[in-house]
Structures are given as C-alpha cells and as structure tokens.
Amino acid sequence: MVVTLAMKVLLVMSCLFSAVAAYYRGVCLHGGWQGIDGGSPSVFAPGWHLDYFKGKGLTTFRVGFAWQQLQPSLNSAFDANYLSLMDAFVAECKQRSLYVNFVPIPNNWKGTPLGSGSVTIQALTDMWTRLASHYKNESSVWAYDLWNEPDHPLWNTQYGPTLLDGIRAVDPVKPILFATNTGGWGQYYTYHLDGLPLDSKYTNIVYHAHFYFDTPADGTYDHGYDAYSTTIGVDRAQGFVNWCVVNKVKCYAGEFGIPGGWQAGNANCTWGPNTNDPRWNTALDLFLYNLDYYDISGTYWDGGPYSDITDIGPTCDGKDRPQMAVLTQHLGTQKSPVDWQSAPVPPVKYPTEPLIIYNGTIQHGYTEYGWGTRDLQNTQHVYPGCTYSIKVTLDNWSAVRFGSPPAFSTLLYESISFYVYPSSVSQQIRMQVTQTNTKQQDVTVGNQVEIPIINAGSWSQVVVPFEKFGLPEGTLLDGFWVQENNSTSQGDIWYDLFVINQRKV
C-alpha cells in the first residue's frame, strides 16, 4: 500500500470504524549503554522522562543495555550494580503501568562481534537465559528483544533458533522480539527475511525491522532533507509490511525516526532548536499511517538521556520537538503491548490504491537500469496525462527495467499494467518479474510472458496478471523488465504509465 495525503482521511475512517485498530506506539530510550564508549556514564531514563512520554500516550519503551557491563565475563554471573540499574528502571515503569523490552546495544561484546572468538551464540544464549530467569515473572518487562540489528548469515536460521530454545527452556510464555537479519536496513526484504518465518513450534514471536528515511538509510541524517519523496518511509517498509501480511505474523517497526533540531544532550535533557524541515514530518506521518492501516506497532528512535539527531524528548527549556505532534496522531488503541501481541492477527487488508512506477517520472524510489538505447523523457509520443514516455530502440535484446524497493506481494497486488505505442505490429516484446535474492542480487523469477502487439501507431494498454508468471500466491517481488523478444533490429517503441495494480477483493 502506498499512502498519499489524499488517502489519510480514508485511513482514519477505516481505523475509527474497524473492530481493532490494535497497535501501540512507544519510544526507544538512550542511556543504558552510553558508558562503554568512554564518554558518558551508563544511566537509564529517570522517572520524569517516563512521565513526559506517558503524558503523550506512549506506554512502551525499548531500552538498550550494554551486554559487557551486565555480564563482564562471558558465561558468568551478572554485575550486581548494573543489574540494579535495570531493576530500578523496571520499578519506575511498574509504578506507572508502563512496559519495557530490553535489547543488547551495541551488537557486540567488548568490541567483538557475535560469532567471533569467544563471543559465540552459546555465550549470548547464556546471557539471555539468565536475564529471562530474572524477569520471567515481571509483567512490566513484557518481552525479550534478542539483538539489535543482527547482520550475520546464520542469524535467521541458526543463531535465532538457538536463542529461542534457550529462553523457552526457562520461560515458555513471554513474547520474544525477533529482529530480522537487516543490519538495520529493513528495506532489503529478501535479504533480511530469508529463512523466516520461524518454525511454528516457536510461539509468541514478534518480527521487527528498522527504517530510516535518509540516504543511506542509517538514521544519521547528515545531508539535510535528501529524500526523493515524502513517501520514502512507506516505500522502504513496503516489502516488510507485505511479508507480515502474507505470512499472518505479528510485526513491528523497532526503530524509525527523523531529525527534530537536536544538537547535543546530557543525562537530563537535550538542547537544540525544536525545529526541522517539515517535509520530514510529512514522511513520518505517511509512514505511520501505513503502519496504522496494517496494525503494525512500533517504537520511535529515540529519546531519553543523551539521545541523538532523531531525539523526540523535550528540549532543556521544556518544549516539544516537532516529531511529537506527528507521533501522537498515531497512538492506536492498545496501550498494552501484551494485549496487542496476544490478540489474533487481523484479517488481510488489501491496498486501497495502485502502486505507480512510472507516469512520466519514476516514482517511489524505483530505479531504471535497463539496457540498449532508451530515453526516459521522450516527448514524441506521450500517453495522455503523463509528462513523458519511455522510448526504446528494439535491437539486440534491449529492455526497460525497473527495480529496488518498494517490494510488493502477489497476494495484495494482482497485475502489472502499462501502455505501449508500437511503430510496427511485427515488433515482439516480453515481460519478466524480478526479486532480490539473499545476496542482494536482482534475479528473474517465474515464467517469461510474451506481450502481443495489436495496434501500431497508437496507445493500447497491456495488463499482465501475476498468475501468468506461474508464481505462488504471496510471492514478494521488487521489479520487472519489458524486453525485445529477439536480437534483430525492430525499430522504436514507446512505453508509459507502468502500474502495479492492487488486488480487488
């Protein structure tokens, strides 16, 4: 689903009259791991921070802790002082009927990444089984958040299941937040979802990924406003969202955020003007409307002590940052993450609009990387309502090709359509769909489909149902090409208005 500003009223109405609208919004809190870089001491957010966020309707917190400070020696007892800091934070949450899920940040132990040397998955499992034993009867600790932004080829298939087995041996009930293998780059859906969902023997699992709207999507926002469109957040989450819907699993956006004027911070507050480029606010708003529609929860990055460029906490002079006005429009009806997680997965919701790929300009972050002689801003023949067309000289297998996020599912979308203006009825073209494999390589999948040329010298529409490609329902795709069907010179052909059409149910 691609959200436009004009659709927001429809989505609000669908939430108001839905039986569920069941999702929660929370905040990732800085502080607990700050001491490991030799800069600031590790502190957890004080009670007044929690009061501020609770007053805004934000009831759940994703809180990082430093593995090496909690467990200074691998496979050994916890540091009592550091554990007491975590317990004190839990007590503050419990006093206010708030919830926390702790997550190890950064994703290493004393600088050594997971899977290297003595930092084995068995060592991480030891830490988590000890922590689960400590908190399994504490209702304010609502879930175990296994690892921050895993980036290891064995995470989904071996490391994750090993952790789950260890935790479930001591706590068979509490939800587990399974970070998909993104390295933080949630838009690369095939790469980070390979091997998922997990075996059905693992229950109470919530899958999550992280999304940022800057280039290169790392949340540093070093270049000011650099998004190609305010739909960038929706586009980058599209593959993950479609995967969640198709697989009927609970999912949430573990991190997302935009700049809000932050310049620096300390243990108590942050400073910098409470201003930003308003286009970032629109991008966040549309991103959240899309999560709302699919009942996907999320925790905004970030707030609390020290914080960083995307800080959503109040300024030192007590002013709200601009992101807060956006986030509080998307709180959902579930104040308890436990209620959200335990509720049934909602029925499949279908997109309300098509996904336009090209209408004279390339849309939604797609890239055209075909081959042969092509002109993407041709004015010789333009389909009515479009600004340009794509002219291709058919020679030596030339093709127009679109790819990269957003991904789309053949369960939610039913066909690809476009308009063609042939110069001869003897021209031969074919279509192929593509997806990104686990090595982040774009590969063709399914059958090739020949496109018949009926009329020359005028525009006609071509509609290709996804069933024609012979793919299983629910296949995730992220591109396609239209290619000359032989290697001979066939003259010029024009294409316009490429659209992925939503399934009408």
Short description:
The chain is of the alpha/beta class and 505 residues long. It contains eleven helices and 25 strands.
SS class: alpha/beta
Using only CA atoms, what is the Rg?
A: 25 Å
Portion of residues within helices: 10-25%
Number of helices: 11
Give the low-pLDDT segments. Answer: 9-20
Terminal residue distance? 14 Å
Neighbour order of strands in the largest sheet: 1-2-3-6-7-8-9-12
Name the shape in a single word. elongated
Number of strands: 25
Beta-strand content: 25-35%
Q: Taking all residues together, what is the mean pLDDT? A: 91
Biggest β-sheet: count, sense, barrel?
Answer: 8 strands, parallel, barrel
Describe this entry's structure for a reader.
The chain is of the alpha/beta class and 505 residues long. Helix content is 23%, strand content 27%. It contains 11 helices and 25 strands. It has helices at 8-16, 47-55, 67-70, 80-95, 121-135, 155-170, 189-193, 232-247, 278-293, 322-327, 337-342; strands spanning 25-29, 60-65, 99-104, 108-109, 112-113, 141-145, 176-179, 205-212, 250-257, 264-265, 270-271, 297-303, 355-358, 367-368, 374-378, 389-394, 399-403, 408-409, 413-422, 429-436, 442-451, 460-465, 476-477, 479-484, 491-502. The strands form 6 sheets. The chain has an 8-stranded parallel barrel with strand order 1-2-3-6-7-8-9-12, surrounded by 4 helices. The longest helix has 16 residues, at 80-95. It is elongated. The protein starts with 7 loop residues before the first helix and ends with a strand.
Descriptive labels:
alpha/beta; 23% helix; elongated
